[in-house]
Amino acid sequence: MQRTTRRSDLPLPAARRSPDSTAAVLRAVLDHGPIARSSIARATRLSAATVSGIAASLQERGLVREVPEAVVRPGIGRPHVPLDVDSAAVGVIGVHIAVPRATVALLNLRGRVLVRHQDPHGRRDPQSVLAAVADRVAAIRREHGRRRRILGLGLATGGWVDGVNGTVVEHPVLGWRDVPVAATLSAATRLPVRVDSNSRALLRAEQLLGRVAGAARRSAVQIFVGNVVDVAFATGGVIHQGPRSAAGAVAHLPVEGCAEPCSCGRIGCLQAAVGERALVRRALAAGLIERPDIHAVVDAALAGSAGAVALLEERARRVGRAAALLLDLFDPDVLLVSEAGANRVPGCLAALRAEVAAWSSAGADMTTTVHPSSFPENVLAVAGGAVALDQVYANPSI
Question: pLDDT digits over 98-152, tens only?
């Protein structure tokens, strides 16, 4: 009997494919690749024909590739050649604007940092900083753009960032206000540009690429501690921004027992208590480091300086008290901490977890709930890159 082809069995024309379906297929390949098309269909609940059509489109754009070497054995009939994210054909630029320097990096679709440059600011005004960033982006594209198509640029920074309009509304430490970062860099680089805050960018990275991505997609709180301190939270995979894109502003939460003056005029705000500037100043005053840089404090601790370890553990405990408040407030599946000590210095994560346990009433298991960054060596580069990667995986048809 001749089989009648049903309309639902036919692959959809590209114009009629749902962007959500295309994104679902690409995310399935990211999460499980190398993966067969039949397994993608089961994971996404799409028809085999639809998956085949979408996969062909993604291959044409260089987002996925066939991996014949991953076939276990041919079996009977045509072998099912798995698909994986194409880590060689395309990439994104990640930019992070910190107080002392700018980080500009090239990342592949799995978030691996391929090239990274960290340039101290000559001047800190927005025009000078963004012009220097654009020059560095151009240099990376001249060197690597012929072999790899660049899909977009993502930028992360501290302060109040309006990701919808691509604007740094206020960065008090840098002295920036109402800076149209996305428009400026897009005009200079001719790339699609998206911007977001440190913590929201890192939470996107954890949801896409992190060690506990599954839990982070259910519900998560992300704390970023640098010269600026901010927080992001998400439920059901959606990161809350607020009607003014101001969600996560915790810099001025009061910290008990801290006498550090804050730029806002008060004493003992969280950012003043645990920010890098105060920590570096104390390390310099104690003769623990020779250059005013957080990396110098971490390096001293890793080299065995008891004083540097003590400073970082003290900061970890203060961050732990703030984390305990957030854990009780949001009760997330995971609480993620991006802080230099917890990320890299043995003992700091344990000190932070112990403080969370002591101050929280949520009764959470600290080892399964509180986690350091999944990207300890490349936090800043990945933060910027994740802003662009999030757009690629959410809207791969663009």
Answer: 999 999 999 999 999 999 999 999 999 999 999 999 999 999 999 998 889 999 9
Residue 140 · residue 115 · CB < 8 Å: yes
Summarised one tens digit per residue, pLDDT across range 169-221 is 999 999 999 999 999 999 999 999 999 999 999 999 999 999 999 999 999 99
SS3 content of the chain, % helix, strand, coil (to 5): 45, 20, 35
Bridge partners of residue 64, in order along the sequence: 85
Q: Are 292 and 286 in contact (CB under 8 A)?
A: no
User: Reduced to 3 states, what is the DSSP secondary structure of residue 114?
Assistant: strand
Q: Select 211-373's CATH number: 3.30.420.40, 3.40.109.10, 3.40.50.720, 3.20.20.70.
A: 3.30.420.40
Q: How far is CA 336 from CA 85, 232, 319, 349, 398, in A?
A: 26, 10, 12, 11, 31
